[in-house]
Each structure stands twice: as C-alpha cells, then as structure tokens.
Fold this sequence. Notes:
Elements: H1 6-16, H2 21-28, H3 32-39, H4 47-56, H5 61-66, E1 83-84, E2 91-94, E3 105-111, E4 127-134, E5 136-141, E6 144-149, E7 153-157, E8 162-165, E9 172-179
Antiparallel strand pairs: 1-2, 2-3, 3-9, 4-7, 4-9, 5-6, 5-8
Helix pairs in contact: 2-3, 2-4
Amino acid sequence: MEALNVGARLRELRKARKLSQRELAKRAGVTNSTISLIEQNSVSPSVSSLKKILDALPVSISAFFAGDEPAPPRAFYSADELTEIGDGNLSWRLVAARRPDRSISIIHERYPPGADTGTDMLEHEGEEGGVVISGEIEITVAGEARVLGAGDAYYFDSRLPHRFRNTGDVECVIVSANSPPTFAEGGREIHHA
C-alpha cells in the first residue's frame, strides 16, 4: 500500500476550504511554520499535532488518510487493506475506515520503543478498550499510570484525560476498539483508542 503524501493532502484540504497557512495555524493553535513544514513534508507531525490541525479544518483522521469516498460494507479485510492513521512513528491501522455506517473503530496499533501519543493528554467522547498483544505500554488515565504487558487489557471512559507511551525496549502491539467511532466523525475525534 502506497504511503500518503501528508503535506500534499493537508495543502489540498486547506486550499479547498480557502484558508491561508496563517489562518489554519491560528485556528489549530500551532505556529505558521508548523503548517508550512508539514505541507513541505519537512517534518512528520505527531498524531496529537495532526489532530489539532485536522480539527481546525474540520476533517476526520479517517477521511484524511482514507479519502472521503465510502466503501460498501463487507466482512473481511486483508492486512494491506487496513488504513494507516498513525504519525510515521506510531502505527495505527484502522479496520473498515471507509465503511459509512461503522459504529465502532477497531485498530491494530504498534508503538516502537519510546513512542508516545504526545505530551498533551487526549480526551474525546466515548469509551475505549484494548488488549496488549506483545510488549509493554504505559497508559495514563485521569492521572493514574499503569504499565500493561501481553495479555493485559484496559477499558475506560475516553472523556478522561489519557496518554499511551511505550517505555520498554521492544515494540508494543495492541488491538483496540472505541465507540463511537471517533476516527470517522469529522472534527470531533482526538484519539483512536
């Protein structure tokens, strides 16, 4: 599967909404140079930074990465059909990203050693849960941090401030779900899991 040109896609969406880089930066609460560097593909934005920018458009992460055309419902997806919505460091592969009537998001997540969802705590509507398949992940929810290993699981109200960090020295793999499918509702989603 060919990687998305993040800079070109962001520029296309910004121009379609008749926004200058300066106006988008102001709406997103980032610097003008951040928008410029992303559009030039000089920097790869973190998931939390990209979310702030997409929320200002507003465009959902799934629409950003998968395109806006819905796909007919089907039951099975091969590994190469999952839509990458990560930031180039974290890998979050969304199942059925283009399905128009999804009521949950299911994501295959990979966190390399040192990977982090960002210093800003994430908050959004809904509930989320997951199971650690391999490695370890430190998850902080409402100020309480816990390191989970293979076979351990989590489930919490997504309105509580949360963050995911791989503090180990091997990749962490998680399969997660959240409802409502916040990667599908333009401008409202903050995080996958």
